[in-house]
Amino acid sequence: MKRSSRAHKSVTLLSPAPSYCEELRHRPSPLTRMQRLPRLALLALEAVTPPDWEVIIRDERVETIVPEEIESPIVGITVMTYMAPRALALARQLKALGKTVVLGGYFPTLTPEPALADPSVDSIVIGRGEHAWPLLLADFAGGQLKRSYHHPFGHHGYKLPAVNCSLTGPERGYNGWLTQVQTSMGCKFHCRFCAIPLFHSRQFALRDLDDVRARNIRDEQLEDRRHQGAESGTVTQRHAHAQRHAKVAHGQAKREPAKTPHGAEEIRPPQRGQRLLAED
User: Between the ranges 122-131, 184-193, 203-212, where is the mean pLDDT highest?
Assistant: First the structure.
């Protein structure tokens, strides 16, 4: 994934994946692709990157990451805790190639000391990255990169940058039937086993409704462009599908297996009280 521009600066954003994803990477089944959703965090960083920067996104779930092929002088890696071993392995390879390495995500946010303790890590972003990212790039360009960047959580009515939806489609290896839309940050529940409240400083905020609506409109326009010609009835089918759901909800029609755009049955989680197996 690469931003098309005449940029003279370059940054590569990586999403590492565990080794078991390698076997699934080139599996063509719709079910495998259905399980892959784009990394919204990297799309948000791409959206707020200054226009004079080239942005390259590499997701190890859908493509192979070869450190020697990365030309950008600075590399950002999003890291969930379970991906930390793979992320640090990539960071060490990149550092050996002379790259500046920045970590962001749950791992450096919840455990900043271990993240910074690795000599291959030059800087980390704690918490939300979309506000800190432009400043981080400016500091890097000026030779004044800090060891860590941390922006306050936010507030109700926050807005998000418009992401480049052309980087998220099935032609990229992602789920083409679901759209991710962020409507809030954090969680109003503080479950001890969950990392989300800690990541968001135990706060909760709702996104501006007009901002959410604008995102939905952009997604629908992109979806219509993707299906134009190949599936000219997409909008009509969508409307009929919505009407069908309304009838089922009011008991006017029987529930039938949902169909994907390719005709296969859509896999849905069992409803409350529904048995997983026909027999014990």
Answer: 122-131
Strands 204-206 and 184-186, how do they pair? antiparallel
Are 205 and 185 contacting, i.e. CB atoms less than 8 angstroms apart? yes
Model pLDDT, residue 209: 87
Residue with tokens 């309304």: 246
**pLDDT tens, 175-190?**
777 777 888 888 888 8
pLDDT of residue 119: 96
